[in-house]
């Protein structure tokens, strides 16, 4: 069932239809002929892969974790976070394994098409593209919050959202992930630096900004008793924080050597989990119920402005990666199998830039229409993140290994079947419950007037 593996070609070996003047570098099962005449889509090293994978996760997700700990309580919050980390790491591992066996797979929808046919491909294709676009929208919303914080609400929030969308449009137009990985390095350093500044600040200050005057002691709770909708929304925020799995297929597709994917995944998930647990515990411990979401606003106005100023490049890169991958998804659907995919022709550039423009416009509309950070994160994590990370991972293992049970139903095989089926069932239940909780949260926030409305000018920081 696997597609044709990427193979190195000599410059004199030119397949049918390729121009003789081109210096052929590679023939790839996804991108076709890769030559010096066009962008090199297979030039991503294992370290760049690790950084891109970290950046797809360490961004908006980490900013919501302290508030999610408050909802659940410290102990249940840490347990749920680590559980999600283990589940998502296995899901990411299955991406690497499946890609090596089926080299013509580019996105999660391609994998689903192999397993479930055209209907499954269509459903996951829509889910995959929506997930990436919503992630891009969440990034644009986060940028508008940062710009409001840094400028002390210098202008209408709707203007900041539009400015963020324009900058992301320019950055997302970069064609290959090996070049975007350079931005990811800078973005990762910036977002981690800003979060660490807030983490240190809440530890040395007397109180968080929102705490009342007078003597104050942190009211953090080891165990909390949230409502069903609040609890499931908090867990959905954890899922969003680890929902890098849909990004991993496009990333591994641009690796020079996909066999190094597991090494990159191990580095990524280790750094991400240590970061999430440490920052979540420290910030919530010192802020208690007065923790902000996003977390950068928890340590007072001055620290908030400094932290948001430093985090801005990271927030731009977060949105850039999502919109770039969504654009490339559509671009490949239009151009795959044509000579324009790997050549710098007029058609190539018109279609590429049109895809980027349309994706950014849709992300802008979403960011403006759902301007509530925590609820938007919960909605994306529950409805789209779960669908991309839980059910496909279980299906991928069953697709590649079910036939082995006819030969020998070993204990290991039976255990993996149970795990895969559990991923499908739990993922479906989490998707339904989490989506319900996120929608209720959005409605309640707008009804109580605790959030700015769509296309509003109010300060959202």
Ranges where pLDDT stays below 50 over 5 or more residues in a row are: 1-21
Approximate shape: globular
Q: How many whole angstroms does the radius of gyration measure?
A: 22 Å
What is the correct CATH architecture? Up-down Bundle
Instruction: Quickly count the helices.
Output: 15
**Series of secondary-structure elements, N-terminal to C-terminal:** EEEHHHHHHHHHHHHHHH
Number of strands: 3
The share of residues in helices is 55-70%
What percentage of amino acids are in beta strands? under 5%
CATH superfamily assignment?
Amino acid/polyamine transporter I
- What is the arithmetic mean of pLDDT? 85
Cα end-to-end separation: 50 Å
GO molecular function: L-amino acid transmembrane transporter activity
Pfam families: Aa_trans (PF01490)
Domain Amino acid transporter transmembrane: 43-439
Transmembrane segments: 75-98, 119-146, 152-171, 183-204, 231-252, 264-286, 306-326, 346-366, 372-393, 413-439
Protein described:
- Its main location: membrane.
- It comes from Penicillium olsonii.
- This protein is an all-alpha fold and about 450 residues long.
- It has a single domain (about 45-450), classed as Up-down Bundle (Amino acid/polyamine transporter I).
- Helix content is about 70%, strand content about 0%.
- It has helices at about 45-55, 60-70, 75-100, 110-150, 155-170, 175-205, 230-240, 245-255, 260-285, 300-335, 345-370, 375-390, 390-400, 405, 410-450; strands at about 5-10, 25-30, 30-35.
- The model is unreliable at about 1-20 (pLDDT under 50).
